[in-house]
Specification:
Shape: globular
Radius of gyration: 22 Å
Structural class: alpha/beta
Order of helices and strands: HHEHEHEHEEHHEHEHEEHHEHEH
Distance between the termini: 73 Å
Helix content: 40-55%
Largest sheet: 11 strands, mixed
Strand content: 15-25%
Length: about 325
């Protein structure tokens, strides 16, 4: 082949494939594998919308989805890891859980070429995980019980005497604690949570349940709660509204390839799809808040908050289990 034509082949065929992060044989290898095993905290209902979009782009790929809560997934993954091999090819979980998996040697490095299209700072510099969606922790309130003007506007206002016994918080995740620790340092974060813990908080398991009780009038305020859940409930006409934090805490859901996956090419392809335009749009249709630039969330108000850049991404330094234990102790969870 003449040099000129060899160069054109490189520009027109090989270079676009490499720019997309897919070696020329990646699709062929993924087709041979035919399937990928996914352990994810994504519910079965949410996965259906995502899987439909994946099938449209990669009809040959069978995604075997195993729904597990964050804690249950961590327990299963570590059990399989100690037994010699994690049975999943791809893991989807919170950033805290993924950092733990990284520390334990469960996940391997794969920097998807799609990650360059995400908003800044939501991937691992060492390439072991990428953020796929976010959720923002805000103050939810029932406007039939408390006006927007009277609702707390920042974290210090949570500590005001008039809100004692009026606020619900999710007991199942330590985000109020890890958010404060990552923003103010451990000493000040612990001091703040101890003060908050004295305000007779209503401890509720799960964000969805907490918002349903808020809409039902069980309490006027739900603090450090997920904006996606409040927004979806509000759009259905329920009596709920929200106020941003100052700054607003942001959590990240992440995706990663396991070490020595059974379906290596399909695993990388699935991660690429999670971060692609089609994948991010599918996640948005499922009510998630996407992290890819240019892909809108389900709500204009959410997009405006994201664009405001008044956000603090929670990055817990230290052992997640330790923070969960301290959080439970401060809140008095038995």
């Amino acid at each position: 082949m003449k040099p000129r034509y060899a160069y054109l082949l490189w520009v027109l065929v090989l270079w676009p494939a490499l720019c997309l992060g897919q070696a020329p044989d990646l699709l062929d290898q993924a087709k041979k594998e035919g399937e990928v095993i996914l352990y994810a905290t994504m519910t079965v209902g949410d996965f259906e919308a995502f899987n439909k979009a994946a099938k449209e782009k990669y009809p040959f790929l069978n995604i075997r989805h195993v729904y597990l809560s964050s804690a249950r997934q961590a327990a299963r993954v570590m059990q399989e890891h100690r037994a010699g091999r994690v049975q999943a090819d791809v893991l989807g979980n919170s950033l805290e859980a993924m950092l733990y998996f990284k520390q334990q040697g469960v996940v391997s490095a794969y920097r998807s070429p799609e990650s360059k299209n995400l908003i800044g700072g939501v991937w691992d510099p060492e390439g072991t995980w990428s953020g796929m969606t976010t959720d923002l922790l805000i103050t939810g309130f029932n406007p039939k019980m408390i006006s927007k003007a009277a609702a707390p506007k920042n974290y210090e206002e949570y500590l005001k005497p008039q809100f004692k016994g009026q606020m619900a918080v999710n007991r199942g995740v330590p985000y109020p604690f890890t958010g404060m620790v990552s923003m103010r340092g451990e000493e000040q974060g612990i001091a703040y949570l101890k003060k908050l813990g004295q305000h007779e908080l209503r401890l509720v398991e799960g964000y969805t349940h907490m918002i349903n009780l808020l809409a039902a009038g069980e309490y006027p305020l739900a603090i450090f709660t997920q904006l996606s859940k409040v927004d979806a409930t509000k759009r259905k006409g329920a009596p709920v509204d929200w106020l941003p934090g100052s700054p607003t805490f942001a959590t990240i859901s992440t995706v990663a390839v396991t070490r020595n996956p059974l379906h290596a090419a399909a695993a990388r392809l699935l991660v690429d799809f999670y971060l692609s335009v089609e994948g991010q749009q599918a996640l948005a249709r499922a009510g998630k808040i996407p992290l890819r630039r240019g892909v809108k969330s389900p709500s204009r108000e959410i997009d405006q908050l994201l664009e405001s850049e008044n956000l603090h991404v929670i990055r817990a330094e230290g052992e997640y289990g330790r923070y969960m234990k301290l959080y439970n102790e401060i809140l008095g969870v038995r």
